[in-house]
């Protein structure tokens, strides 16, 4: 059998190569010099360089047919988003990990590797690259979650995450093998053409394959009923990593699901709409109701992030051009909100001790005015109050659902937003209540404060003036094949 | 005559045994072994379907899947070591500080 060596276009993958080499360089510097600051600088430099390279790629279309990965506006948009998420995570980690005993020499390069996994995941045009990048992302995340080696909860969270993640990956792998068997290829383009000619949504085998892939991917986005790991892992992980996990890795897998349903699985998808409808409703409702009952702030936000995955699933159900735009907008907005919320919590830590319990937040606003204001803006935005980015995101999402005829889904979404208002506002009011015990203030580093302040301002700016972002998103969605 | 279906049944059986074991066993190391069984069940079905469809992609996939399985086990074992050092237990039911 002849195996033709593919033409390599290094320019397309240059940003990914930059991230890889800077991550490796960071590990080497850590091995030889053990200088945390240097590792931080190298990792940050790698991310910024890749960001600049991607910005220069914007607008140049080109799907590499027959190749493993695509470079188009859709992937460039998400890649830029992931790099920004990674930069924000690093800035928020800077002080936190020094306080909490994390081996920081490996921490920053691992963030880069996880980012690389996300970047390759959205770009992949082949099930092989998809599987490998999901694993690169997951394995880096397992280690990051467990990076507070002396803290039992961090160990426990990492172990649970690894067990559930590996279990889910095995499902994904088996699903891929069945899809491969039904279509004879792992390339998205070839799968699509093999499925295109089939009537009735394709053979039975492909549906079992898709179901098993859905279990695997559903675990990664923590949609109900595959969400059990999420609250434990989000709770036990170092707080900046919780933010990274709940935004970056979730958005990466969502972006992949959207591409999968748009591209190779558009034919069989018609029979899956009902399933996604059920997942969306379950995720929204269970996430919000469980969040209501929490007394631990990190767990509350973990359940709320399950609910937000449910909101994004609304767009997956509707699945037309407008819904795609709404999904991209909501993911961007959610990334900002998630990072801000967990970033604020990281910056409210008092030395090694974090404030987990909701009672600890009483009257915090008097000692930490900046964090309290930013967290309040973020909570309002998560609840979807007008003039915040969260409102714009939800507005587009629900109106896309209504216009596609899923009115029931939009109504359930709105009702869920109303439920969520209760616990978001509850936490916010608590911060401004009179403190019952004296809260000791603690100085926090300027970098982290600046980062959350910037994110908070971004929430407000996007809430008032979203049109530039919407324009960019329109161009990103236009790069995908029309539905 | 051994056909592709037989291999698929073998692969599914391995996968199923892995799933059952994962849900029923309590020892962390046994859980990792069950995941390994699931991945290898997928591998068997990959190779069988590969022979049927006559494309090489599936076999390449199996090689990568084996590497991935090894990576997961390596990280898993180091976490097990950490947990054993802190609590001297391998029982998943003892991972109970974080709950609901």
What does this structure look like?
The complex is a heterodimer of chains A (483) and B (100). With 483 residues, chain A is an all-alpha fold. Chain A has a domain at 272-483. Chain A has helices at 10-33, 36-57, 73-99, 104-123, 127-145, 152-183, 188-196, 204-221, 229-236, 239-262, 266-269, 273-292, 297-318, 321-347, 369-383, 389-403, 407-432, 446-464, 467-478. In chain A, helix 3 (73-99) packs parallel to helix 14 and helix 13 runs antiparallel to helix 17 (407-432). The longest helix of chain A is centred in the middle third of the chain and has 32 residues, at 152-183. The two termini of chain A are 37 Å apart. Helices cover 78% and strands 0% of the residues of chain B. Chain B has a single domain (4-94), classed as Helix Hairpins, CATH 1.10.287.3510. The longest helix of chain B has 31 residues, at 57-87. Chain B is mostly helical. The interface between A and B is large, with 41 and 47 residues.
Tell me briefly what this model is:
The complex is a heterodimer of chains A (483) and B (100). Chain A is mainly alpha-helical.
List keywords for this structure.
heterodimer; A: 483 residues; mainly alpha; 19 helices; B: 100 residues; Helix Hairpins; 3 helices
Q: Which helices and strands occur, and which strands form pairs?
A:
The complex is a heterodimer of chains A (483) and B (100).
Chain A: H1 10-33, H2 36-57, H3 73-99, H4 104-123, H5 127-145, H6 152-183, H7 188-196, H8 204-221, H9 229-236, H10 239-262, H11 266-269, H12 273-292, H13 297-318, H14 321-347, H15 369-383, H16 389-403, H17 407-432, H18 446-464, H19 467-478
Chain B: H1 4-24, H2 28-53, H3 57-87
